[in-house]
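Data card: per-record layout.
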Amino acid sequence: MKFRLKITLLSLLISGTLLIGFGVNFLGVISRVQMDRIDREIRGLGDPPLRHLMPREFWQNFGQSMQTIYGDERSSQLAARVLDAQGKVLYSSPQCPRKVVEISLPVLEFDGPSPPVLAGHDAQEMPPTPPSKPSSERDEPRMPPPPPLARMKKPVFQTVKTTDGEWRVGILGNEMVTMMIGVDLAAYHRDFDRVRNAFLIAVPLGLLVLVAGGWLLATRALRPVALITRTTKGITARGLDKRIPTTTADPDLARLVEVINGMLDRLEKSFQQAVRFSADAAHELQTPLTVLQGELEQAIQTAVVDSDEQQRYSDLLEEVQRLKAIVQKLLLLARADAGQLALHLESVDLTA
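The structure for this 352-residue chain is written out next.
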């Protein structure tokens, strides 16, 4: 696998994992926030009437109160059921699902201290009638006294699945009444599905952007490496003077270029020394070999014909001539390595 592809896949893996993890966590946060909002709505509906000890007639008309406050459309998504301390039903919404009706009621704990009670009166009693006013003030309208305060209990919330969907049910109460209020979660699921579908569309697009970005970054990061590759590929024995252009884009790559150029400097010096040694050695060997060849030729001429001595001189002369041929080849290679060899090009008929 190419290094560029490895970098792209690694960036996709890391960024994609972070993106998907963030998306999943974001969906969870949205779900919890929406559920908390529904719970607050249930408490906002049930807490006001439960803060006072309301008469039985109030709970019988509780459905009309919800319809007046929330309207027909919203009230159709709400279900309420009110029970007294003995478990007798005071009110039940017509649209209340059966599973909501049949849920087991938990034991609610009291929330906070008891409300203040008037001296000499029980919390469940109405306040005393105020003293009669003079006849001149009897015809003036008087506000009815407020119901006594009730001791609230801590609410409990749970999600109930029915055949038609899910309901969020809150169980609230005071010392006299227990109330169940359910909210149809169909609208909640519609909103959540829209957010989830948007996330499912955005994640593949984001991953494509990450792939393109990772490939672009890998290409830009490896551009100096490609320059180093092209430069080193063109370095030959005749081109050891070439150097890789220095770069300031990245300190690590600049250090690598510096190391390679230093290596090329050392190679060039070593190669030039080797070339000079070959040329100098060949030049130095030519003179003694020429002298030795002349002496052997003269010795052959002065020796007795067909004698052993003349034969030995002839063998030595052949060896000296072979050494001179080797020296000529060394000079040829030295000139070729130094770029001083003149080439005579001729066309050749390969068919012939």
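Known properties of this structure: Residues 75 and 294 are 129 Å apart (CA to CA). DSSP finds seven helices and five strands in the chain.

See the next section for split statistics.
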